[in-house]
Amino acid sequence: MWTGTVSVRQVAAQVKLRANDGAGQTGDSNFFDITGTVAAIPQSVDGNFYGTAQFGGSGPIDSVFKITPAGDFTSTINFTGTTGTNPGSAPLAALALGAAGNFWGTRSTGGTPSLGTIFKTTPAGLRTTLINFTGTTGANPGSSPQAPLLLGTDRNFYGTTQGGGTGFGTVFRITPAGACTSLANFTGTAGALPGQTPVMGLVKAPDGSFYGSTQTDGANGFDTIFRVGTDGSVSPIYSFLGDTDGRTPANGLSVAADGSIYGVNSLSIYRLNPPPSALTAPATTVLANSAKLNGSVTPGADLATAYFERRTRRLRATARSRSVRARMPYEFTLSHRVEFSETDMAGIVHFANFYRMMENAEHAFVRSLGFTIHGHDAGTTIGWPRVNAACEFFKPLRFEEIVDIQLLVAEVRSRSIRYAFRFWKGDAGERTEIARGSMTAVCATVDKTTGKLSAVAIPEAMRAAIQTAPPDLLTVFSAK
Which of 114, 143, 313, 412 is most buried by its number of CB atoms within 10 A? Predict the structure, then answer.
């Protein structure tokens, strides 16, 4: 084993460790993030810190290392590639501390057939290779694991592979005994789980579930966000739109102290608000637009949905409107930058444009569910004329300001849908409600001969996709 001293090199929010044995051998560890709530180099019960390294220079090639609080460095494992006593190489991810005090890690290459491995090591350096990934077929589908493992509430570890499965990457679970289960295969631009290359790994939400992102090839051809439930289910949450709301996520997702999950891509800073698995406070004390809760809560349930909202970087706002698809059947938020043509002589948005924004939010909501407000059902043209609309104004909205139009499905009948709207401006935590409105739209068809409109039943597929919001959320939403 290799011993020596260690120094720290910091670049932005990341640091790299440089080891020196005092006899000419040096090498650098992998960069690791220092901004998260959980350290990337975990501390063992023995008080020492443990991590992984890809060393250059004249030092060992790939290692697991130990650093004492005094800064003394020891390489506890040197990996040996596809053969030898410690098969595997390129351990790109940090170690994960298990419940028994051992460390779990991944190697992105090496093993048999050189597609990466999962290993376990004691603080003393006693290593066990648990599985060898087998690519697109075999006992352990997946290849090139490059993200840390995360310990779940069930005491199992969860992780992702960059490739393998159906060729787009996988999500897996491994038990403390080393039994690995492939939970899902990403399916590219089509299929049940859009996305490819979940290289950034998972983060753990307060409700015990995991969230992650893929780098490309979602339903719209760009990156995606997905959720791993505590029951092992994997479901898509959001597919980015590219030039509208960004592409190519940077640094993965992060869990903040308020329980929200944040991410960054080429255009957007976005936030996920996972609901907790149990309601711990009366619903009347929960604000519908806070970071703590957005959505209904069923005590003890493992909800499969999450509220999603995005704040666009002001310096790179390139689109007039940016829709936010929450994949929820009753709630939606549309962000819009006020155009000069929407204002009056005082530079304030003319009241009529609030009705237009409500309509635009309705259109975007229906579109996000895979439908349109002007379509065809069984050969008949279907439209949605409004039979009622109202808006109450509290604060002015001005040119260049960004407004979030929040939509809630207040009531669904056999032939009509009633929506409630709230208009917000400002950042989370300092948001100001500027208006509140409602609108009722009726599903109708037109007689091509007479031009007469007739109300008809909402198409079955659309009716099944849209739900009335839960009563507790409607109560909070309508409270002043």
Answer: 143
Q: Which of 181, 254, 260, 253 is nearest to 224 (CA)?
A: 253
d(CA 44, CA 115): 29
Pairwise CA distance, residues 59 & 74, whole Å: 12
pLDDT at 68 over 60: yes
Q: How many residues can be counted in the chain?
A: 480
Task: Please state, in angstroms and rounded to a whole number, the distance separating the CA atoms of residues 327 and 127.
Answer: 43
Q: How far is CA 348 from CA 335, 406, 425, 430, in A?
A: 18, 20, 14, 21
The confidence band for 53, taking pLDDT boundaries of 50, 70 and 90, is confident
Token readout for 371 is 């439908």
CA distance 385 to 373: 9
The answer for residues whose C-beta is within 8 angstroms of residue 182's C-beta and 6 or more apart is 140, 141, 142, 165, 170, 171, 172
Task: Band the pLDDT of 399: cuts 50, 70, 90.
Answer: very high
What percent of the chain has pLDDT above 70?
72
Name 64's Cβ contacts closer than 8 Å, sequence gap at least 6.
50, 51, 52, 53, 75, 76, 77, 91, 95, 103, 105, 121, 125, 127
Instruction: Pick the more confident residue, 460 or 83.
Output: 460
State the chain's maximal CA–CA distance in angstroms: 95
Cα separation, 161 vs 147, in Å, equals 8
- How far is Cα 182 from Cα 230, in angstroms, rounded to an integer? 15
Spatial distance between the Cα atoms of 159 and 252, rounded to a whole number of angstroms: 14
- Flag whether pLDDT at 236 surpasses 80: yes
Provide Rg for the chain, Cα atoms: 26
Other CB atoms closer than 10 Å to residue 387's CB: what's the count? Answer: 13
> How does 132-161 read in b/e, with b if 16+ C-beta sit within 10 Å?
bbbbbeeebbbbbbbbbbbbbeeebbbbbb
- Which of 143-157, 323-337, 342-356 is predicted with the least confidence, judged by mean pLDDT? 323-337
Task: Note the pLDDT tens digit of each residue in 413-469.
Answer: 999 999 999 999 875 457 789 999 999 999 999 888 888 899 999 998 888 889 998
